[in-house]
Prior knowledge:
11 strands; globular
Amino acid sequence: MFWSKQVYVFDDVVSPTKQNEIKERWLSVVPWFYAKDVTDQAVTKQSPRPGLAHPLFANEKPRTSKENFELLNDVLTGAFQKLYEKTGQKGNYSLLHSRSFLQFPLATLNGPEYDSHHIDTFKPHLSVLYYVCDADGETVIFENMLEPKHGDLLSDTYVRQHKPRLDELKEKVRVSPKQGRVVIFDGYHWHTATQPQKGIRCVINTNITQQN
């Protein structure tokens, strides 16, 4: 797959008008649900990093309103058009999961700077992260990758067993949240975020597979 081990960052994947429409809906209309930890990971010696979550697509079905799902499609269409312009490559893509997260500055934090580093899903996939608004709280993508061998049975247990320690991580790139920006990367890169300290951080996180 041409995107193996790659990271791409594109700005203005939708028009400024559409960016503002997404921001307005996500910060005033979208229903949010409490998430004990935005990475859904059990982290030793680190307090949970709570936030709010909203499902957009799961189990082969939209999990949000028609209007929200159409805006998600606009983002993905724009993102993959930018990817084509950059690489000259087109893929037969399929939507796996999509959800949004809304985070606030936390009064108390302990443990490392990073939220728990993680992999979103077991299948080979592209992660597509769209920033709803300008914020701090960088996305951190590491050189370290989950590299299953042929025949490995992927599961939560397998991923936990192959999760690198913090002192083993080597940063590949940090991406600052900017309204209208998207980062597209090989989802087998271990990745995480830092917590916002100056205001809210709102993202749309989508996982895409490429059909053969």
